[in-house]
User: Fold this.
Amino acid sequence: MSEKVTIIGGGLAGSEAAWQVASRGGRAVILEMKPVKMSPAHAMASLAELVCSNSLKSESMENASGVLKEEMRALGSLVLKAAEATRVPAGSTLAVDRTAFSEFITSALIEAGVEVIRGEVVEVPPARPLVIASGPLTSDAFAASIQELIGAKSLNFYDAVAPIVCTESIDMESAFCASRYGKGEADYINCPMTKEEYEAFYDELIKADTARAREFEDMKSFEACMPIEVMAQRGPKTLLFGPMRPVGLTDPHTGKRPFAVVQLRRENKEGTLYNIVGFQTRLTFGEQKRIFTMIPALRRAEFARLGKLHRNSYIDSPRLLTEAQELRAEPSIFFAGQITGVEGYCESAASGILAGINAMRRARGQSLVCPPETTITGALMRHISGAQGSFTPMNANMGLLPAETGRDRREKQSRKAVEAILAWTETLAK
Assistant:
């Protein structure tokens, strides 16, 4: 056992794990298959590539996403350093320029002395401590090796990606810029629809062809990233309470609230690309172009990227992992990121932070740790390592924290979480 930590996967979790190791004086080695071999969803050679969205969700301390970010800052998160340096306007949401974000993290790790070895890992290596952060798109060969290691089949679900449009192709005479309820700057482009336009759009959406290969026929969609056409099948009003909800918006062209609204969020710093918020899809490319251009402001849209579906895999963490993310049957092997069943960019990054901390502690013969259950990070790690019943991916949420009473219960939960993580980080330094 040495102070060298090997990390398989250079995504958000792997990058955070490496950063924690390097920050603590250890030697981190990342084994990353890109660009020698690319997954179906990745396109860049750099590390920490954001695939599904450029949004890291809200920074508001009124919800778990904002609290988790404060905890990650206290833990020295590289992902949040990169996000703050490469953010694009998105109201209270922390959204980033994907390319700049990925390049920031790659450069920071190289400058910190992290070694990056390119090429596919096809079997679990003998190096210890080892962090497996190969992500939900783990290659088939390495997935087979993991299955052999854990003695069980991986679970899986399917994830869908939303389209991106070129800004110059948006019809701004039909659209308007605003944030809901006027909060912050007018960072979103809003594409309003009348009742008749929405109904025509909905009718085409629910009968559209989908890119459903044989392996997708028994598809299990994760609720937080459900394809819009699957969501639409739940009823004609579902989208009006979801990604196409008009609340908090007034169309300056009419002075009224639209019947439905499609929001576009800036994708890069230059503002030349916008993401269609909540429109992750598995529609065929032809159907996407046909149906999404029924939205008046997108009638002449030029798509920089169309939506697509990919498989996400995760292990049965409650049976396999401790709350420190160490494999129960094989001490000194840690799992981190979405492959553990945490869902979301920041959740994956937080998982990587803890795995990196514990891998270094294992290398130094120290006891392993987990933040208190009053923190989002600690509560989430305890959930994935001890969930009861059927295990499915989990986002950060306030329901994971110990209950509080009163109208200010969320404020109490948030305050206690931040106080607890700050106190906990002090104990790590001793």
